[in-house]
Design brief:
Low-confidence stretches of chain B: none
Mean pLDDT of chain B: 86
Order of helices and strands of chain B: HEHHEEH
Number of helices of chain A: 6
Strand content of chain B: 5-15%
Distance between the termini of chain A: 35 Å
Mean pLDDT of chain A: 79
Radius of gyration of chain A: 27 Å
Strand order of the largest sheet of chain B: 1-3-2
CATH class of chain B: Mainly Alpha
Shape of chain B: globular
Largest interface: A-B, 26 and 18 residues
Number of domains of chain A: 2
Low-confidence stretches of chain A: 75-89
Distance between the termini of chain B: 21 Å
Strand order of the largest sheet of chain A: 2-1-3
Oligomer: heterodimer
Chain lengths: 193, 112
């Protein structure tokens, strides 16, 4: 790996590790670290500098620790207090959206899982149904009164399909939950900035 | 707490004072500070600790960093200088350090 590649790799990894910081702050840090490494490269001390900086994740933790330290000692005036309250409100909206989005997927996962179980207990009511009159599709458990108007398409495949969809919905719910937590953390870091 | 951990904590507190004191004498980049402190390893500033520290000091308004590019077109560097707030902090910290050092010396001085 050439020196330039080493520098680019390190800066890219550091950028990823600092992704929760506001872009301007992150770019400023990356520019300075890049400048540091390029200067050391000019002195033929790049490897020494990289070793001293440590892995990108550890280097990023150093910045986060100092930011937390600053936050702990900051004496916020009225402007900062109002800003913090607004930031908190925005985080709550973010959290509410996140909860709603993840909750919908978790409910879908529960519905698919219930369909898989129903296929074992009452196979005549569970499956992928198509209404013979209007051609609409429905996946799940239908009322026994409606079975005359509907045709079930999956048969024995209902269980694996329902189980797969349940797992997929669960994974999507978890991913969305983590995504919104990440958004909230980013808002928090912006507030720190 | 191990001796290494205790030494690390001691150096963390001293590093900020050392950086502010050095910037009182002259404007320096992160590399400049590291090179100046290279002969004083006990201060414990490394490539990995100087930039987070400078970043915090700048956020706190104690130092000001300005990107400077040499006229001959060389590589740019962020040069740090002490702000009035930094000078005031340095004055208070120096007084606290002086008192701390004197009192601790009287206690530790006689230890074997």
């Amino acid at each position: 790996m050439t020196s330039n590649e080493k520098i680019e790799t390190y800066v890219r990894e550091l950028s990823r590790a600092l992704s929760s910081l506001e872009k301007n702050d992150r770019d400023d840090i990356l520019l300075e670290i890049r400048s540091h490494l390029e200067h050391r490269e000019d002195e033929n001390r790049l490897d020494e500098a990289l070793a001293s900086l440590g892995p990108a994740g550890k280097c990023a933790r150093g910045f986060f620790e100092e930011i937390r330290l600053q936050e702990a000692f900051t004496d916020g005036g009225p402007t900062k207090t109002i800003g913090a309250l607004l930031a908190l409100a925005s985080r709550r909206i973010t959290a509410a959206f996140g909860l709603l989005a993840a909750g919908i997927f978790y409910l879908m996962a529960a519905g698919f899982a219930l369909t898989a179980v129903a296929e074992v207990v009452t196979p005549e009511l569970a499956g992928l149904w198509v209404n013979a009159d209007n051609g609409t599709y429905f996946f799940g458990i239908i009322d026994s009164e409606n079975t005359a108007d509907a045709v079930e398409l999956l048969g024995g495949w209902t269980i694996p399909v329902a189980a797969s969809l349940a797992v997929l919905a669960l994974v999507c719910g978890q991913w969305l939950g983590r995504f919104f937590v990440h958004l909230m953390m980013r808002d928090r870091m912006k507030q720190r900035g | 707490m191990s001796i290494e951990s205790w030494s690390s904590q001691l150096r963390k507190g001293a590093a900020e004072l050392a950086v502010l004191a050095m910037l009182r004498k002259q404007e320096l980049s992160g590399i400049g500070l590291l090179d100046e402190l290279a002969q004083k390893p006990e201060i414990g500033l490394s490539d990995g600790s100087i930039y987070p520290l400078l970043n915090r000091l700048e956020r706190e308004g104690r130092v000001k960093g300005v990107w400077v590019t040499p006229k001959n077109g060389g590589r740019g560097q962020k040069i740090y200088s002490l702000t009035p707030k930094g000078r005031a902090a340095l004055k208070t910290m120096s007084a606290a350090w002086s008192g701390f050092k004197d009192q601790l010396s009287t206690i530790v001085g006689d230890a074997p």
